[in-house]
Every structure is written in C-alpha cells, then in structure tokens.
Design brief:
Layout (H helix, E strand, L loop, with lengths): L7 E7 L4 E6 L10 H16 L4 E5 L4 H12 L3 E8 L6 H10 L2 E6 L1 H9 L12 H19 L3 E3 L13 H10 L6 E2 L11 H4 L17 H9 L17 H13 L5 H6 L4 E5 L2 E5 L3 H10 L5 E5 L6 E6 L8 H14 L11 E4 L6 E3 L2
Parallel strand pairs: 3-4, 3-6, 4-5, 6-7
Antiparallel strand pairs: 1-2, 8-9, 9-11, 10-11, 10-12, 12-13
Helix pairs in contact: 5-6
Length: about 375
C-alpha cells in the first residue's frame, strides 16, 4: 500500500545550518519563504487537526528506522525532538550525524548507571549474546517518558518495526515494553502503527492513524524505498552499534561479570581496549597499537599499574587488581612481563626487571619492580 503523507512536504531551506522543512496541503511553497512563514504553515496544519501542534519525543538511534519514524511524524505536522542514550556499550555519534541530516533537534543523555543494572540482571533475559534488548528498550522508553514534561513532549515514539527482530520486536515484546516502561498508550510506533493497537495520540487526533504505516517483517525494501522518496540518503547499516551484540565483546563481559559482579562503568570502558588476560583476580590489558597504549594511560585508576618493556617500543600493559584498590602481586607482575615480551618486538618472555612503569601525565618513566 502506498504512503500518503498527512501534509505534503513542498520544500526545504537551509537556514543557519539545519534543514528547515516547509509543509502545506496543496500547491507549491516558494523555497525563498522565510522560516517564520514555514512555521505558520506547520501551525495551520496542526490547528485544523484539533487545536495545537503536538510534540513527539522520538527515540533516535540514527538508524534508518528511527530516521523514517521522525520524518514521518514531522510530515504529519507533529513537532519532533530526538533523544539518544549513551553508555559504555553504545554512543551517540550515529544519532548526531543523522539528526544533522534531518535538521532534527537532539537530546543526548547518559544512562550508564541505570543501564548497568539492566545488563547485570535483565528481567527478560539476554539475546544471542549479552544484549538484554527487551529490558534495554523498556528502560529507554521509561526514561523518555520521565523526560516528556521537561522537554515539552506530548508522547513518545520509536522506529520499531513489528517482526523486524524476532526476540525484541515481536508483538508480545512490543506490548511488554509499553507496559513495563510505564508508557502505556503514550508510546507510538509510527512505522507499524496500523498493525498495532490504537494509541492515545491516534485516538486524540494528534496523529491520523490512517496516515501511519503498516511495515512488518525483516525485509527493509519498503524502508529503503521511503528513504529514497524522502531524500534520506545517508543512514547507518541495520547491524547497529551496540557492543553487547558482539560475540567477542560479550565473552569479555561475561568473564568480567563472573569474576567481578559489582563491576562499574570504568571496568566496562576498559573492556573496549586491547588484549585481555586474567592472572587470578588481576586483569591484564595489553595495548595493540600506540593509540590503545595512550587510551590505557587515560583509563588507568590510581591503584592500577602501567608497565612496558624498558629497551624496545611495544605494548603498554595495564594491571587492575580486584577488589578495586588492591595492588597486583609479584605473580601478576611476572605474568605481565611474560605477556609484554611475547607480544612485543622481541617475541620472548621478559622478566619484571626488564620493565619500566609508565608515568601518567609526565613524560618520564621509572624503573619497574
């Protein structure tokens, strides 16, 4: 079935950087019209539907589905603001690029502490790896609902598509997220809305249900076609950017959780860097290139030890003993020396006496133990 927009997009103008969209029911709007005139056209569309222009807070990852959801609502006369969340496992760079592409205002929010609790103990379990997608989506929607009043929103929307992901976007999972997040029928999925129960924004006439979409399944042909029609040419691949879906990273995280159940954000950040080895209760991380060596220095806490080979350039080793604050013992130092030698230029085990400790901040080094 073809898509008929709620209000016809008739022009774009770039004013001070962002793309400003102009809307009208019929005819052409001169692209030279002012931003104020464009806004007045938008307001008249909203007023004809029942009073004031409504505002949606859209969970915005920067992927194609979230871009289409935001653009669809905007074409329906709804004012749209994006919100993206950051943790050690995913960031906001894709969302920032996509928001710039659409001229969309974007709120960036760190939810690390709350998200770590979900990762450690997901009520609805993990996906294929260490990704607790249902619990994670519920948390994001819950936080968006909590921010609605502050950000001036009337309802929350996502780019979820029914059946696109077998575990986290089946009908039962979508209903579960709406319920446990506390959003209820304030949560609209515009790309699949006509296949799902009617929501409050639809019942109240803030958005016309018949103008929303009925996308379902794993094929993305219709999404790609819509992107072409709407001039959206720069978007991320559907693979996503969450490290919790990565097999190798998940193995590291699983090991950390088994050894250090109370791990924190600093420990999670360290999982993203270098080669990882355990010596008893001490984690040894080796940088694989110069940039990672510098990153390890930046991630080191006061009780961590940083070492490298004395005579040859090569990897830096960070030693972090647990419980946090403990010091690495002699056995840990011997293992670090062995690893630094094997992964260094000499390709032979070293002794602790052949190492130096890397100073933090200053360009000096002192003899290792």
């Amino acid at each position: 079935m073809g898509f008929i927009p709620c209000v016809e997009q008739v022009g774009r103008q770039r004013v001070g950087g962002p793309v400003i969209l102009f809307f009208g029911y019929t005819g052409m709007v001169d692209e030279a019209k002012s931003e104020a005139e464009g806004k007045s056209v938008m307001m008249s569309a909203g007023e004809e539907r029942g009073g004031k222009v409504r505002r949606a807070l859209v969970l915005f990852s920067g992927g194609l589905d979230s871009m289409l959801a935001a653009e669809l609502l905007r074409r329906c006369g709804v004012e749209v603001r994006g919100i993206v969340f950051t943790t050690p496992f995913f960031g906001s760079s894709s969302a920032e690029r996509a928001a710039a592409e659409l001229g969309l205002e974007l709120e960036i929010m760190d939810i690390t502490e709350r998200h770590l609790e979900v990762v450690k103990n997901p009520r609805y379990g993990y996906g294929k790896n260490m990704n607790p997608c249902i619990d994670c989506h519920a948390l994001m929607v819950r936080v968006a609902v909590e921010r609605l009043e502050e950000l001036g929103g009337d309802f929350v929307a996502t780019g979820e598509v029914l059946g696109e992901r077998p575990k986290s976007q089946n009908r039962q999972a979508l209903e579960l997220v709406a319920r446990v997040s506390g959003a209820g029928d304030l949560l609209l999925r515009p790309l699949s809305a006509r296949l799902l129960p009617e929501t409050l924004p639809e019942r109240e006439g803030w958005v016309e249900r018949e103008r929303l979409l009925d996308l379902s399944g794993r094929s993305r042909r219709r999404q790609i076609k819509l992107a072409e029609e709407w001039g959206i040419g720069d978007y991320e691949s559907p693979a996503g950017g969450c490290l919790l879906t990565d097999t190798g990273f998940s193995a590291r995280l699983r090991e950390l959780m088994s050894r250090v159940p109370a791990f924190d954000a600093a420990d999670a950040e360290l999982l993203k860097v270098g080669r990882h080895f355990w010596a008893g209760s001490t984690l040894i991380v080796l940088g694989r290139r110069h940039e990672e060596n510098l990153r390890l220095v930046g991630l080191a806490h006061h009780a961590d030890v940083l070492l490298r080979e004395r005579d040859l350039p090569g990897p830096t080793a960070l030693l972090r003993a647990y419980p946090r604050g403990a010091s690495p013992n002699r056995r840990d130092l011997k293992e670090a020396a062995r690893l630094l030698g094997l992964y260094g230029k000499g390709k032979r085990p070293l002794k602790p006496s052949e190492l130096v400790e890397v100073s933090r901040g200053a360009e000096r080094e002192k003899e290792g133990r």
